[in-house]
Amino acid sequence: MSNLSMQGKICLVTGASSGIGKATALGLAKMGATVVMVCRDSARGEAALSEIKQRSSSGSIDLLIADLSSQEAIRRLANEYKSKYRQLHVLINNAGVYYTKHHVTVDGLEAMFAVNYLARFLLTNLLLDIIKQSAPARVINVAGAYHAKGKINFDDLQGEKVFEGQRANHQSKLADVLFTYELARRLEGTGVTVNCLHPGMVATDLIDKDKDFPVFFKYLYKLSKPLMRSPAKGAETSLYLASSPEVEGISGRYFVNKRIAQSSLESHDTHLAQRLREVSERLAKLA
Ligand SMILES: NC(=O)c1ccc[n+]([C@@H]2O[C@H](COP(=O)([O-])OP(=O)(O)OC[C@H]3O[C@@H](n4cnc5c(N)ncnc54)[C@H](OP(=O)(O)O)[C@@H]3O)[C@@H](O)[C@H]2O)c1
Questions:
Q1: What is the pTM of this model?
Q2: Of 66, 162, 221, 223, which has the maximum CB count within 10 A?
C-alpha cells in the first residue's frame, strides 16, 4: 500500500489519536499525503501527532481538536479546516465510541448515535462544498459488520424509552451504511465517491474506554485481543479506499478486506435512508 503516492492529496481523519484512526493517519502520512488529524483530547492528539511525525518522517501533518459529540464543535472544526485549507481530497469518518450505559451529549442526543453517525453526517455536509471542489475526492465511513443487526428505531431514536448499549451501537452503524449509500446517490456525477467499510475485529481500546462494560466480558475481550487484528491491519481497507486506483469511480459500496461485500438488506432501503436523512437534517440543524 505504501508504494502508492498520495503526494498533493489532503486527507482528514477523525479519531486519529488511537486505534484504527491513528494507524490510518500514519499510513496516509507514509504515502506522502498531507494529513489533518482530528482528535478530541489535545494531549492525546499531540502524542499521536509526534509519534506519526516520527514514524513517517513527514512534515505535512496537522492536528485539529474537536469533540465530535458537540455540534457546535463540529461547526467550529469545519470552519477552522476551511480557514486553513482550500481542498479536501479524502475525508475519513472514523471516530467512534461504545457505551454500555445511556450517555447524553450536550445537544441532548444519545452519544453513540451522535458520535458514530450524526457527527459524520454533519461534518461531511459542512465540508461538502470544499470536497466537491477538490474532485476527484473520496468520503470513507468506518462502519462495521454489526450494522447488519441494526434497526433504525424512529420511535425512540435516542434510546430514551428503552436503552441497550449493543442495540444503540448497531443502530449507529446501520445509520452509517444508509448514510453512505444515500450520499453516494446524491453525489453521482460530481467526481466524489462515498464508501463504507468493516475493519474486521481489531484490537483497540474501544471497549476498554467504556467504564461500564461488564468486568467479566472486559476480561474475555482482553484475552481474545491477541487473536484480533492489529490496528495497522484494521486500517488497511480505509487506506485502500483512500488511495487505490482500483476503486476510482466506485461509490455507494460496503467493503470488507479491501473487497466489495454485501451489506444487510435493510441498509439498501432507500425510503429508510431518505427518512433518516430528513430526521438527521433536523437534528443537525441543517434543514
Ligand atoms: N475495533 C473494532 O473491532 C471495530 C470493529 C468495527 C468497527 N469499528 C469502528 O472503528 C472506528 C475506530 O474505532 P477503534 O476500534 O479504532 O477505537 P479507538 O481506538 O477507541 O478509536 C476511536 C477514536 O475515536 C475518537 N473519539 C471518540 N469519541 C470522540 C469524540 N467525541 N470526538 C472526537 N473523537 C472521538 C477516540 O478519541 P480518544 O483517543 O480521545 O478516545 C479515538 O481516537 C469506530 O468507528 C469503531 O466503531 C471498530
A1: 0.98
A2: 66
